[in-house]
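Our consortium's second objective concerns turning raw sequence data into structural hypotheses that experimental partners can test. To show how far this objective has progressed, the report includes one record in full. It was chosen at random from the queue rather than selected for favorable results. The single chain below, 67 residues long, was entered without modification.
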Amino acid sequence: MGLIISIFALEYDGWKYILVDGSGEVEVVNDLDLDFNLITNTFLIMVGSGIFIYLMLVVVKRLKKPV
């Protein structure tokens, strides 16, 4: 769930860098395999979603209790 949200909501386009020489010509385009920003964002979204769902369940449980 966190990966899907991270890809679509944060407009993930991969992590690459482009080396340009002095005349403005592109020398090298490197795509890196492991993207720590994507992994970190996915983890934080999963933790945040879990905490949110837990808090909502606690609120619903308290509202259903007879006073």
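The partners drew two points from this record. The chain has a mean pLDDT of 80. Residues 2-64 form one domain. Both points have been shared with the crystallography group to help prioritize constructs.
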